[in-house]
Amino acid sequence: MFESLSDKLDSALKSVTGQGRINELNIAETMREIRRALLNADVNYKVARDITDRVKEKATGDEVLQSVTPGEQLTKIVYDELTRVLGGEHVGLNMADHPPTVILVAGLQGSGKTTFVAKLAKHLRSKGHAPLLAAADVYRPAAVDQLRTLADQVGVPVYSVEDDGQIVQDAVRVADEAVAHAKQKARDVVIIDTAGRMHVDEAMMKEVADIKGAVDPNEILFVVDSMTGQDAVNTAKEFNEQLDFDGVVLTKLDGDTRGGAALSIRTVVEKPIKFASTGEKLDALSEFYPDRMAQRILGMGDVVSFVERAQEQYDEEQAQQLKQKIKSDDFDLQDFYDQLQRIQNMGSMKDLIGMIPGVGSQMKDLDLDEDAFKHIEAMILSMTPEERSNPQILNGTRRRRIAKGSGVEVRDVNQLIKQFRDMKKMMKTMSKLTGQGRSMNLKKLMGRFGG
Ligand code: GDP
Predict the structure, then answer these.
(1) Where in the chain are all domains bearing CATH 1.10.260.30?
(2) Whose CA is nearest to atom 12 of ligand 1?
(3) How many CA atoms lie within 13 A of 190 on its CB side?
(4) Superfamily of domain 101-287
(5) Which pTM was predicted?
(6) 109 CB under 6 A from ligand 1?
(7) Which of 97, 103, 203, 330 is the most exposed place for a label (fewest CB within 10 A)?
(8) How far apart are alpha carbons 182 and 58 in whole angstroms?
(9) Ligand 1 pocket mutation, candidates 115, 194, 285, 288, criterion most atoms within 8 A of CB
(10) Distance between Cα 68 and ligand 1 center (Å)
């Protein structure tokens, strides 16, 4: 899904990875790349500009955190923006206080409407509902047959009106009677499949509007083929002007879709995307969550949770204090111990390593020694406060005592002290190089002490 867009965003974001900080220069080039990627994916140009403007503002503003790398930070900002244009929060179906809930489904022919109706029935059934499908696509006998076939697979009944074996071509009547039938038969949801045309046309719109007027649906869903890009957005606009629908269903997201429809429709039409359809099979339907979709587009969902967890562990004040300590060379073993505690609060070592992009997949199966942390902690805890703040006083006798106290060998203590010295040097160099003394380079820290 959205592979080309994902790849291009990835390479745009990579261009700031490894740079000390986000500045006007590197952000401008990155924003150009991101905008190009979005336009290539057929995202509406206003939406693309809006996304890059907001990302730029946030990335160069005060909000930049010190505790993650610029690449990670920017990824998180882009992720937040994508989530926003995709709608922010998940929006579910409007259900009636007094059943049956009536759901009217509209869209162009071939958009995947009938397939969606069956999928929705299946989805609602799995949630304990008893749907009834109304075959209001009355002009093509094949359409009613198709609905029946799909409904059989899902195990839900279909309501249609026939006279002498002929389908009665009165969509409003079918919808109206289906609702009455549902009440009689205690079916708590009626899903109305309407006729679509190849293009938006007046007769089709009028018919759907008439059904709306007759049954007063709780929910009107507009189904659209996401492969049609900006056409999908324009069709959505026209349907919305006529019908004032409640939600959008994006179909064929499993196909070679570039992402333009998904990323533009919410902003242009101002209606939430409620479902995503990702295949011809009847269980290929999911409720739409903007944040999950943004994660998938960026192909870096794990980094997002990594940054979120880091944010939970550090407030800016603490980060500043730490930065000061590193600058003035006051970072000691007690501080180191505190940092280790924080890292562990973020999750298991294996999980954390798995979140590092690029590294993640290769390292996931590695047999990591989670005990490495425990040993380091035990050694630090066996030190006196004076030793922790002043590791240079750790002579041979003290080291033997610490090894004994923490159940490790003297060479482990030696190694810890050496690693700690190296890390201090590294942090100092980093603080000089970047001029900002990043409080914690989690990845490097983990790389060094992760067993
Ligand atoms: P309708 O004319 O709007 O009722 O569209 P249909 O439900 O008949 O679907 C048109 C075609 O698209 C059919 O061949 C479906 O199997 C296919 N289709 C529907 N939804 C999806 C989807 O999410 N992914 C894929 N790949 N195909 C779909």
Answers:
(1) 314-449
(2) 112
(3) 30
(4) P-loop containing nucleotide triphosphate hydrolases (3.40.50.300)
(5) 0.70
(6) yes
(7) 97
(8) 52
(9) 115
(10) 44
